[in-house]
Amino acid sequence: MTMEQLHLQNGRIRAMFSAANGALLQIEDRARGFLHLQGKAEGIPFRVERGGRMLRAFRAFSYEEKPDGLIFHWDLGGASLKAQVTLLTDGLSFVCSLSGPRSSLSRAVEYPLIQDLVSRGEDSFLAHAYATGVLFQNPAACLPSRGGLRFCPYPESFSGASMQLMTYYHQDQAGLYLAAHDGAGHQKWLNAYASKGSLSLSHMVGFEEVGGAEIRQPYPFVIRLLKGAGWEEAAEHYRAFALKQPWCARGPHWQRREQQPWLWSEVGYTTFGINAGHDRSPWLARYRGDINSRGFHVLGPDWTNRPQTFGSGIPGGLADWLPTRFHPATLAAIRENGDYFAPFEFDFLVALNQSDQQRLKDNLQAFPQPTFSQDGYRFNMLCPCQPFTQAFHEERDARVQQESGCDAMYYDISANNLIKICLREDHDHPPGGGRALTEGYKACYRQTRDRLSSQTGRDIPLGTEMMCEVFLGELDFYQARAWAQPSSTLETWPFRKLMWSGQARMIPMFDYVYHDYGPVRMDGWGKLVAETGDLFYHILAKVYLWGGLYEINHEYSPMEALDGVENKGEEHYFHFASRGFAYAGDRARYLGLYAAARTGAARDYWVYGRLLKAPPISLPQKEYSWFHYNHDSNSATYEARGRYRAEAVLMSLFEHPEGGCALFLANADSQPHTITLSADHLPGLLPGAVAQLFRFQPDGSARFTKDLRMQRGEREAIVLQPLALYMLKIKKKERGTIL
């Protein structure tokens, strides 16, 4: 060590810190000869929140050398910040705490700061668990210095991140895995931002007990070296941590398939936002006839005693919710079709000018100011830790289910959209939040689920808007929109221009880690009309090939016109403009192909299997047209349209629960395409083994097409017909059978 620099190193990694202030200056992958960051000598070691500002000043600094790491001490004047850095075999571990008489004036600590990361231009990628997974190409050039992934916007989860994971890598050169290994759900932020052409990453912890004697980070923030083999490499490492956490204790779905409700085994597609209080049976009948699969319908919020609408009113106490006003013709059509439904609820959002005003006010959540989010949180939300909230949640939903006979419950603007902080001092938790509020939400969901199951004698699935890993044990499904990008809205709004250009793209990061353990994803933001463009075919195929359920959405625009008739805006909970876009039966039948596959021959893979990294097969590209109108006219994305370059043939790989794999190939183009496969592309295909190609039929069966008997180095061309779906089952020679 020198007077200017402190080093931690072994045969794999070399890290350098400033001896003057403890800032992280350098991380070198010694095995690959790759320097990940070359920080400045005056680098910033930390930031501490105080009075709504992020401060970095300190009075004095000292350090201790340990056999396996370093301990840093910063004197902040009445408060002491301590950080322990531990050298791992292939990385570093960081833990910090703030204590002392004046520590109660602060609410959070941002540490470590990883600044001035090396960029390789278009070969550099940032994958972040924001909105279940976004991949940015050349993030140093495209991420903003403010906003973006610093104190993320909706959906909140871990400040925008569905998992506590991000990775920065340089394709086929080197990479970094960055993750908080916290199994208890503490409040945290995983920040990523650019400044002067350089990328910075950071971790922030706090707000657990505002005004307490200490801010403590009871888990490690880990940095590990990677090969640069894609974002899946980091997700694989994170999965090894994640599956050991309490939220995965129930085990994979395939081990519980006999106890799984209809949502896993019977449903082929979903709808969202069909009016609950009006007759929509003609549309339900047309969907059933053309899609020819059982559907799951999250009906719109217009079923409450006092109307629950977008922008013009929500209920207060129980008297505003009950009795329910579901239209009997709509419910009858759902039952006649063999479908299932859930009512849409703003489950913690309440009005303070209706019934039970004082009790609602006494139990409201108090958000921090500033919010350390891009959301202003101008909501009246019930605090989930309060006994009143938990009892209210359970009683309301039990009575709603009893009156309507619903099969599931859906919660909007719920636990996964809200920062887990409540500053009330008169509530049943310390002022702050994080883990306490997470546990409060879990208690609400568990108690409600137990009551509904006891009442009905069957399991009633619960779902929310968006998802966070800590709720895998309590929730069964979630609504998302991001896989419909660029023809979508909401959770990726800060990056809409990057999404349109392709510099930012959605990835199935959450599903790579949790598909065989986690909830069912509803996505696609779809309309069965020709006007949305031919990107429809790509989006729909992507949703299923990544393991989700395609969603037809009617929240902000009319349903498809049947014989020239569409539902009226004044009957809807959002007053939209008339469109007159005709129902497209051919698109419904295309949806039906995938819906039938999900409940048929693809079920063991798409529903119960594990999502794997797809092989490096060259796929043809296409310029798709798209038009987005299903949103508020005041939105910047309203009536956006354009061309989007993406794969004409989509591909995904799933592992069967009992072993073996299947490669799914979807031609989303109206033209045939030929792809070339090599035995070297197919996992586990030994010399002399067999892969069998099947084409899916409208009834969900898979018709055998051909055997592929390839030795190593051999290649075979496959012609994929227009708008067709295929499955290549891969048999390992030693197994003897194809699954």
Q: What are the main properties of this structure?
A:
globular, eight-stranded parallel β-barrel, 40 strands, alpha+beta, about 750 residues
Please outline what is shown here:
By secondary structure, the chain is α+β, with helices and mostly antiparallel strands.
Please describe what this structure looks like.
Strands 7, 8, 9, 10, 12, 13, 14, 15, 18, 19 and 28 form an eleven-stranded antiparallel β-sheet that branches. It is globular, with a radius of gyration of 26 Å. The model is unreliable at 733-739 (pLDDT under 50). With 739 residues, it is α+β, with helices and mostly antiparallel strands. Helix 4 runs parallel beside helix 6. 18% of the residues lie in helices and 32% in strands.
Strand percentage, roughly?
Answer: 25-35%
Radius of gyration from the CA trace? 26 Å
Assign a percent range to the helix content: 10-25%
The largest sheet is: 11 strands, antiparallel
Structural class: alpha+beta
Low-confidence stretches: 733-739
Total number of beta strands: 40
Average pLDDT confidence is 93
What distance separates the N and C termini? 58 Å
| Count, helices | 14
Shape assignment: globular
Element layout with pairings:
Layout: E1 5-9, E2 13-18, E3 24-29, E4 34-38, E5 47-50, E6 53-55, E7 60-66, E8 69-75, E9 80-87, E10 91-99, E11 106-117, E12 124-130, E13 134-137, H1 139-142, E14 161-170, E15 174-180, E16 188-195, E17 198-206, E18 214-216, E19 221-226, H2 231-242, H3 262-265, E20 269-272, H4 281-291, E21 295-299, H5 318-321, H6 328-336, E22 340-345, H7 357-362, H8 387-404, E23 409-411, E24 421-422, E25 432-433, H9 435-456, E26 462-465, E27 477-479, H10 496-501, E28 504-506, H11 509-514, E29 520-526, H12 535-545, E30 549-553, H13 585-599, H14 603-606, E31 610-612, E32 621-628, E33 640-647, E34 649-655, E35 661-667, E36 673-678, E37 691-696, E38 702-708, E39 715-720, E40 725-730
Helix pairs in contact: 4-6, 8-9, 12-13
